[in-house]
Amino acid sequence: MPEKPAYDPEGTYDSGMRVFSYIIGGIVAWGLIGWFLDNLFETQWLVLVGILFGAAAGFYLTKVHGLTGSKPAKASVGHPAHDREEAEQ
């Protein structure tokens, strides 16, 4: 059984999950803050502002953390392309 590869900070799955969590987390957190402020001030539009701000903040965090952009995918252990390269050497 092949060893499990060490943590890869540039892994596509991990990066995708981090992007997803930043954006969804921002939407939920700031949407709840907007909902609370809507109830406090008896308005109906702050929840929308909170949701939009949360989405923008999530996208901003993904950009700051370098999770967006085009990076070539690395072949990992157990991947057919990686196995083929080892066999050719």
TrEMBL record:
<feature type="transmembrane region" description="Helical">
    <location>
        <begin position="43"/>
        <end position="61"/>
    </location>
</feature>
<dbReference type="Pfam" id="PF09527">
    <property type="entry name" value="ATPase_gene1"/>
</dbReference>
<protein>
    <submittedName>
        <fullName>AtpZ/AtpI family protein</fullName>
    </submittedName>
</protein>
<dbReference type="InterPro" id="IPR032820">
    <property type="entry name" value="ATPase_put"/>
</dbReference>
<feature type="compositionally biased region" description="Basic and acidic residues">
    <location>
        <begin position="80"/>
        <end position="89"/>
    </location>
</feature>
<feature type="region of interest" description="Disordered">
    <location>
        <begin position="70"/>
        <end position="89"/>
    </location>
</feature>
<keyword id="KW-0812">Transmembrane</keyword>
<feature type="transmembrane region" description="Helical">
    <location>
        <begin position="19"/>
        <end position="37"/>
    </location>
</feature>
<keyword id="KW-1133">Transmembrane helix</keyword>
<keyword id="KW-0472">Membrane</keyword>
